[in-house]
Amino acid sequence: MTTRILTYHLCLLLMLAGYTAIAQDEKVGARIDAAQIMVGDHARLFVEAQHNTATSKLQWAAIPDTFNGLEIVEKGKIDTIKKGNLTTYKQRLLITGFDSGMHTVPPFTFTILPANGTPQTLQTDSFPMLVQTVAVDTTQPFKGIKGIMQVQSTWLDYIGYIIGAIILIVLVTVVVVYFIRNKKTHIPVAAPAPPKETPNEKALRLLAELEQQQLWQNNQPKEYHTQLVDTLRLYIEERFGVNVMELTSDEILHKVALHKEMTAHRMLLSNIFYIADLAKFAKAQPTPQEHLSAMDYAKEFVLATKPVVVVEPQTPAAS
Q1: pLDDT tens-digit profile of 109-139?
Q2: CA 270, CA 266: separation in Å to the nearest integer?
Q3: What is the pTM for the complete model shown?
Q4: 297 within 8 A of 274, measured Cβ to Cβ
Q5: Nearest of 124, 119, 96, 125 to residue 34 by alpha carbon
Q6: Which residues contact 141 (CB under 8 A, 6 or more apart)?
Q7: How far is Cα 81 from Cα 89, in angstroms, rounded to an integer?
Q8: In terms of DSSP bridges, do strands 36-38 and 127-132 run parallel, antiparallel, or are they unpaired?
Q9: Which domains are delineated in the chain?
């Protein structure tokens, strides 16, 4: 037992002084903080390397995650310390083992790449590590594993679920009642049909649209008076029920003279037809004033023949 302890102490001294160097500026080393650990415990391994950045470059060692029954559970970042041209790199490794017995931390190889010359390799020292299991007292009797024990529960163990369910039911009830009380039956209301256009309104609308076209102002007097006369023909048919669409100007005037509602306004139509015939058939064209007068005559004829609505006076109710 004494020999074994001496061996561990000797190994620990070697670990604490575990450096290899091939020159004063280039050196590598490693040390460990524990020579033995229990199964699953951790030991810290510190790796260092130094070189002259002015004359060489350093290639860090390839350190595997597992080696010789040991595992690296954590690799710290590589810290850098600069002092002049000398740069020192340090890294902490956390090592563990799950198999009992003596294991070895292997040496790690670094490569120095000189600016001029052959690359050189440096190795850290290797270290033994003892992984021990938990001591078992064999003098005590063996105890078997106890079975699963049933735990008795009460309604208090479910009080949180009960309160949550009650709150949820209350919220759902409030929402449903709110929507039922505020629900309004939506009855689509049909848009009222636009009032039917009377013959007088239609004729005045067509005459206004004809004015906006400015036909006679753009050297189209024939088209202007043709549309004007056709509008009056349509109005006479719709307003008085007299078919005049295929009649000549003289034939229309003859029918108008025989109609009791239109005969008083025969001269207006006569003036319109005269100017229209002048524009369509005569060599001389109507003057601008005659074009305007024809439109005024047409509007006057439509307004003058508008149906008169007679409102009968209401008879007072007998008391």
Answers
A1: 999 999 888 898 999 998 899 999 876 666 7
A2: 6
A3: 0.40
A4: no
A5: 96
A6: none
A7: 6
A8: parallel
A9: 2-132 (2.60.40.10), 199-304 (no CATH)
